[in-house]
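User: I'm writing a tutorial on reading structure tokens. Could you give me a worked example: one chain, its sequence, then its tokens, then a sentence or two explaining what the tokens reveal?
Assistant: Sure. Here is the example chain.
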Amino acid sequence: MRSPRSNLAPSARLSLIGVLGVVVVMALALVAFNVSERLHLKSESEASVDEALGWQANGNVPATRSVSIIYLDEDWRPVQTDDFFYNELDLEVASWCAQNQTLDEVHELNLQKATCYVEVSNNVFDQGGRRSSAEYAVAYADVTPQLSLIATITFEFVFIAIIGAVCVGVAGWHAGKRIESAQEAQKRFYENMSHELKTPLAAIRGYSDGILAKVMEPEESAKAISREADRMTRLVEQILDISRLESGVVPLNLEHIELSDLVQDTLMPFEGLARTRQLDVELDVPENVMVNVDVDLFGHALENVFSNAFRHASSTIRIYFDDDSLKVWNDGTMPTQDEVDHLFDRYRTGTGGSTGIGLALAEEVVNLHGWNISARLQDGGMLFTFVLPQSTTFNE
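And here are its predicted structure tokens:
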């Protein structure tokens, strides 16, 4: 039985997961910190009061934690002498001891003003090792400051946890929004790609049905079928090329060639289109620029950029080398700035629902070679710039 899918959007889901993750981790850290510190505090305090009572008997080193000593008489009342002055907390501890009268056992007391570890002994000696006139000695360690410090650190941890949860939540929300945007773009892309594939399929089906029904000229229909099949092939090949590049399994067969030769070879298939549309193609790429590229793969990237220029140019295309970069400029109807900003998006949907997979593929190939490609509006036209890597050489 399939479990129901969450109705939460990716942004809300990532945000919630991030916040819950931070809260759980910080909660566990706080619990561990509090348990560890309190156990350590208890152990240290118990050892300190034991040591303090032992010091009264045999002169051992004083306790590592500050311990107070109270002397009691046989009726469990504080012994008042000129040597001892008992404060309010001393008297409160003494009162508890008088009520409980337990010996040689450490107790944790939660009094009104303090938290203490207390132990009573009836082996009472003065500092010189002589038997004291008091009947009982009470040693106690006031751990209130340490508990207050633990509480302060806990509060700071909670504050940091809240800030961290908010930051992670916001980051998760933005990451989720990017996922939603990418998913929506993919959806639009595949919807339009499906439409573009259905169009040549419908044409092929129509021509083939016409031939079978003997209502269409076979030779002309065959040409149309071939043309639509080529269109489908190009679309499918571009999709497969994108997939292969993204998977990282495409090897580069690098060759050391002149950039001008590569550009001229790539331009040759466009000569007929340039004459038909009476386009002025200006080529200015010097012969002394040598590059290391996979000729077939990089030529395909150049072809996609040239195709875009020829498709949108109204009269002029300029292909030139300037400032260590290969540049392709064309006039014609210009896209909006928003469209320019998203020209290389993998799942971009262009004007009229057309897919921009060719330029996305070009960017993948260019980046794979260690080059960079960018696009911007300039001088009343569209400019594509291929920035060459530092390994480019120039022949004298």
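What the tokens reveal: The domain at 254-394 is CATH 3.30.565.10 (Heat Shock Protein 90). The chain has two domains: 10-150, 254-394.
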